[in-house]
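Course exercise 7: structure representation. Students receive a sequence record and must write out the corresponding structure in token form. The form below is the worked example handed out in class, using Leucine-binding protein domain-containing protein (129 residues). Read each field label carefully; the graders check that inputs and outputs are placed in the correct fields and that the protein name is recorded exactly as given.

STUDENT ID: A-19
EXERCISE PROTEIN: Leucine-binding protein domain-containing protein
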Amino acid sequence: MRKRSFEAVALAAGLSAAAVALAACGGSGGSGAGAEAKTIRLGLIGPISGAQSQIGTNQVAGAQVAVDQINAAGGVLGKQATLESADEGASSATAAAAIRRYAADGVQAQARPAVERELPGHGAAACRA
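STUDENT ANSWER:
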């Protein structure tokens, strides 16, 4: 249980860092659908279902705390942040599809803590597709 709590806190810190990085870069840096949006869209890909679902639930909850704190402090470049979550499905193909969907939909930053650890190579798969 303690490890799960730590992972949620670590994820929250990671999303906070992503929001700060977006601010430091002057915005989304992309030309996707969200480039001119009034909100900053943050995406989380994790084990939302299956045997690891408790970890994924904790990650989403921790990330939402971070987003709420970011918004309470004025947001990112004056824009409010929103959190979207996707299930990695314990599959690099499912994770890669979620990565591509976030990119196509204009999600400005993604966090994939469990995917990075559990499913190495998913990023390369997303880039090839």
